[in-house]
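Help wanted!
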Amino acid sequence: MKLTSGVEQAACIIVMLSTQAADIPVTSDVISERLGVSPSYLKKIMRKLVVGGLIKSVPGVNGGFILAKTPASIPIIDLVDAIEGNEPIFQSTGLVRKAFGDIDVAEKGVLKFENIVNEAQEAFRAKLSNMTVEKFLQETIDTNEIQVKDWNQISDEDND
Amino acid sequence: MKLTSGVEQAACIIVMLSTQAADIPVTSDVISERLGVSPSYLKKIMRKLVVGGLIKSVPGVNGGFILAKTPASIPIIDLVDAIEGNEPIFQSTGLVRKAFGDIDVAEKGVLKFENIVNEAQEAFRAKLSNMTVEKFLQETIDTNEIQVKDWNQISDEDND
DNA sequence: TCTATTATGGATAAAAGATATCCACTATCT
DNA sequence: AGATAGTGGATATCTTTTATCCATAATAGA
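Answered by r_m:
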């Protein structure tokens, strides 16, 4: 019952791309240096975000990654889903049947238990669906005007 | 973002103890055989449930484990907490500071993000607090009368 | 069209956490 | 005192996550 650290990495990536000057892709090397992970590993994370539909990749010279949609239309849950998938948090391994036998009441119990946890998970997801990247950024910087910059032009030493 | 399989094991254990004749402890060997795990491993799980306050251990001859409270006063969340702990599902590893520098806005962002996820987790926990072991059992067996038995007297072959 | 640049994908290694077991020890009941 | 049952430490195994390298594919620009 932990989110993987990939979620924090993804959050940083999305924040960078959300504050990136429009139409200028950020290269994965720039991001990997800033996050302190290897270029090749970072690309795996980027790929998950591409597959998840949060960002787009631009190959070739002056390529890199850009947001696939506006920060206003990216709920936080999408970020979690992209990195972790959205499988049920609980799925029976068949233990109940092993312990109590392959009988109706056991089967019903398994389904009921899975259902209870699923509903809790849905409540969790609903909360993270209500918060968008834009709202999160605006509340963090205390203004509705999100400044953009070109991260490709900023060295690792300069901060902010 | 997965519950460990220990939760399913714990659920089976609590169901057994909830249908156990009052004041007759069930030995861990009986439970371990039924769940198909080694006696020593099962005892680790039992211990977590003891520490979590769900069950009580009775050492010595004719000892074993009994529920520490009625099924009506055990919410499902207690079971999850006992096995998994109840740490925040998301905690920053310090990556944000590394990426964006040790500045106020970064610090604020980390706190805000942790907060968002914490609230989602609370929604999850609230759902699992509303369902008790008793309610779960009653809805599973379709009656309010929960039959008790002595699991120590039932071989692994007999089912239910 | 050629070349430099950038992302993609497969193979694989290292680290961490979950799962599992053994055994020596302690506590209790009869 | 002796048998029974839980406790706790050490440790092994498995799975997942984290991470890296390198060969390949795709694109932009000269």
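OP: Thanks! One thing I noticed: Chain A touches chain B through 55 residues (CB under 8 Å).
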